Amino acid sequence: MKGERCYTPKCAIERRRAVPGASDSGNKRRRRLSEYGVHLREKQKARYIYGVGEAQFRRHYADASKQKGPAGENLLRILESRLDNIVFRLGWADSRKEARQIVSHGHISLNGRRSKTPSIQVKIGDKMTWMERSRNSTIFEIAEHQSARRNSPEWLQKDAKSMQGTMMRLPERQDQDVRIDDRLIVEYYSR
Questions:
Q1: What is the pTM (predicted TM-score) of this model?
Q2: Which pLDDT value is given to residue 90?
Q3: Which fold has domain 33-172+181-191?
Q4: Which ranges of 81-162 does DSSP label H, i.e. alpha helix?
Q5: What sign has the CA pseudo-torsion 47, 51, 54, 57?
Q6: Sequence ranges of the domains in the chain
Q7: CA-CA distance, 188 to 191, in Å (whole number)?
Q8: Alpha-carbon dihedral sign for residues 62, 84, 6, 28
Q9: DSSP conformation letters of 52-67
Q10: How many CB atoms are closer than 10 A to CB 88?
Q11: How far apart are the C-alpha atoms of 174 and 161, rounded to whole Å?
């Protein structure tokens, strides 16, 4: 499936060891990344996975560093509790990009109000459901079928019959499905 590849050992970001270009490049070796390069790569990986732009990612980091607790864990918690990510984690979309599009097109309501902003921070107790007008669409049928097959994380409660989801608690580090070293991201921004 489209969104599942980066969660397997076949992920191109994790696996890339060869020099780009022709496969018969012989003795050419990739240079070892500098410390800055390692930090930058981890930040870019997180941005790519969650589909967030540079300015928005920087704002998320600024918000995370103002909160109590480790800035890296707070950043990952902020990224995980975005509406588009929650739609993906509920199993209503194959990928975060698809979830972002579903939210942008106004198919999801948050606490009874139509939401078109994928970056909205969902709070504990917030309820997500499909808009009534969207329940007749093909995308809803596909999401309904996918939702029945996929499990949601423990911090989300999903009702597959009524296609509703509720955030029960904030996501913790062990609840995340991606391998991101938040320490490297914090070091990148603290240089």
A1: 0.81
A2: 93
A3: 3.10.290
A4: 83-89, 96-104, 138-149
A5: negative
A6: 33-172+181-191
A7: 6
A8: negative
A9: --HHHHHHHHHHHHHS
A10: 25
A11: 28
